[in-house]
Write the structure tokens for this entry.
Amino acid sequence: MKKLFALIAAALPAFAFAAGGNVHLDEHRTDLHDKASLQRGAQTYMNYCMGCHSLEHSRYNRVAKDLDIPEDLMMENMVFTNQKIGELMTNAMRKEDGKTWFGATPPDLTLVARVRRPDWLYTYLRSFYEDPKRPWGVNNAVFKDVGMPHVLADLQGRQVKGTAQVAVGYDTLTGQEITEERDGVLYLAEEGQLSAKEYDKLVFDLVNFLTYVAEPIATERQRLGWWVLGFLAIFLIPVYLLNKEYWKDVK
């Protein structure tokens, strides 16, 4: 009984993180079959995230194989340390340094998509806004008082939180958009290197990659699931006939 309570207590934080509080989460339509998206997401992760956040339960050669990336290209463009293709995807940051610089050690993100959910990650990475009161000058609408800097700020631009016009529907007679003024809205005050649509696409690909990393066997599991269901459907026929034969003489 004590072990059961311990397991429940350990799982509660994960459920709390996945819920995302009372913030509306935008839908991330994960597509693990889109290899181009996964490749772009891997490239973004290695360029912007890997310096602080390792993927220590994943290996470079497994990612290269699953994402159809030749190993030589993987080593040339996505491995920036002295590691070999078969090694785990760790970084050079010491935990002590990470805690000193950021206030807490940057976590490993191998399983973050399973703990937080893709919708949470997709919304979180698009919800940083300017906040001079914070140490890094930014805050996050999904994760209040986050200790992480907005590493994609140059790509997204300067996002602020304030009063803005928000679309609430359409006029059925004129077809024109109906808007109303709301407070606490995130909006771009200054564009970055990417347009809003391009940035959303980049974040989509990044979250797609993190979802793959969290469960590399997912597509294979789904494929095998259909074979199992097919076998059970076929096996049901002889089982039904056998059951009928056993009980035919029972009054």
